[in-house]
From TrEMBL, chains A, B:
Taxonomic superkingdom: Bacteria
PANTHER family: 16.7 KDA PROTEIN IN WHIE LOCUS (PTHR36114:SF1)
UniProt cross-references to CDD domains, sorted A to Z: cupin_YdbB-like
Alphabetically ordered keywords of this record: Isomerase
Listed SUPFAM superfamilies: RmlC-like cupins
Gene3D superfamilies per the UniProt record, alphabetical: Jelly Rolls
Protein name, per record: Mannose-6-phosphate isomerase
InterPro entries cross-referenced by the UniProt entry: Cupin_2, PKS_Associated_Protein, RmlC-like_jellyroll, RmlC_Cupin_sf
Amino acid sequence: MTLPRTVRLQDKFDAFSDHFSPKVIGELNGQHVKAVKFSGEFIWHSHEHEDELFLVTRGTLLMRFRDGEQRVGVGEFIIVPRGVEHLPVALDDEVWVLLFEPATTVNTGTAGGERTVTDLERL
Amino acid sequence: MTLPRTVRLQDKFDAFSDHFSPKVIGELNGQHVKAVKFSGEFIWHSHEHEDELFLVTRGTLLMRFRDGEQRVGVGEFIIVPRGVEHLPVALDDEVWVLLFEPATTVNTGTAGGERTVTDLERL
């Protein structure tokens, strides 16, 4: 078999520069591990069938909900359950986030629109 | 609904001191996020149905396989596919690891034995 290999997060984040476009950097149990860079504000959306984990590795993310908000800094994560509307906002010029979510997850959820990424790049 | 809350990894790791005893710190899509502290060498084992992700947040982990090994340092992860025998070894006095794996995962896999943790603590 192929020996499992260590993945260095910094290498993966160094390999792309676009924002709000998650890259698949790992796959297990039908779930994806993704690296994404946030800048500014994304869009309000929710996912019908997927819970989403956001683990911040650079900068601070503000996760807005319809009835509150949470700051997520380096070394912190937040889990957004399916069905919960959320709006990720980068509080720094660039915020780096590791996502852990089902392989079926679309970045804009049920909101759709021009910021939807359909062809996920693998790094 | 209850507002999702930010989880600080450091707080979770500060909340326990035993080794090789994973604590559940998050749950999503039938998967667990666990915090575990490794010291010394664990045991050879594999999981029949579960792939496992190890993300290191302190120290360096050596993941031994029957036909090779990989070092995993801070900010790095490795995914061990189901069925692959592995032996985690802490290369520092204490190594802190975040695990992503199905909620069904038992720490010793099919090997069993005295180091099996059956009652997972939630932090």
